[in-house]
Amino acid sequence: MNPKISVIFPVGDREAFLAEALESVLAQTFADFELLAVLDGVSEPVQSVVDRYRDARIRVIRLPMNLGVSNARNAAMQLARAPYLALMDSDDSAMPQRFARQYAWLQAHPQVTVCGSNFVKQLDDGRRVAARYPETDGVIKARLLLVDSAILNPTAMFRHDFVRVHALRYDANFRRDQDHRFFVEMVRRGASFYGLQEELLLYRRHPGNSTKDLTGLDAEKTGVRELLLPLYFPQLTGEDHQVLLKGLCQQVKFTLDDACHFLVVVNRAMRETRSFMGEDRNELNRLLAGYRQRVAQSLAHLQ
Prior knowledge:
Layout: E1 5-11, H1 18-26, E2 33-40, H2 44-51, E3 58-63, H3 69-79, E4 84-87, E5 93-94, H4 98-108, E6 114-122, E7 128-131, H5 137-143, E8 157-159, H6 160-165, H7 178-188, E9 193-204, H8 217-232, H9 238-247, H10 256-270, H11 281-302
Parallel strand pairs: 1-2, 1-4, 2-3, 6-9
Antiparallel strand pairs: 4-8, 5-9, 6-7, 6-8
């Protein structure tokens, strides 16, 4: 019998929190799953943590060298047998009811492709903060423009058939934002999203998080956004898109002409009322208004 959920579980060469992450999956109240643990060129101590679990639901995939998290996820997806794929990271912990709640929601809502959830963020100092992410498809799609704050990757469960039919894969060229790149590709293919408004994951923030390294952050976010802008703003020209992309960067230095050009383009974008991919235009305009205000303030200093 094939399982109902395949858990995509890449394991990098980091032992901290790995046992807790594994045990949080094995302790799920929904037990009909397979756990695809992809050992991504790990050292012996990390491998031994995984090997000591004798649960028949664990399938270990050993990569001969470190190929990165995108390739590890792709390897697991290719071998997955279940109709639903659940993402997990090896330093987070799933709440006991996570799989049960997401499986029930997707079963009851066949029009939804991806189901995420809220989560609890554990900070470096041990404090825990409840994080609220958007609920509806339109707002989630609009917030992909931020390349965060839309859907947290290790809370996602989605339909395997959708991934298979569209031959979707994680892009290894994105070191940090490969998950958002993947979700944007799902948007392009017509996916719909939903965020359960309950905390189903403990998301740890610690010095080893790859997202803590901000090197090249703007370039990587631009690589995601340049795929998204033509979907949401097809009325704009390629040159307009490039102006918008520059204005959405955090580390941006505008000339007077650049700032004026950005304000013209963003105002044109905000006049669009049609939704092309199901994105919420009000939420999209709210986000654009924030970028417009920032550039307008910089323009005041340039004059």
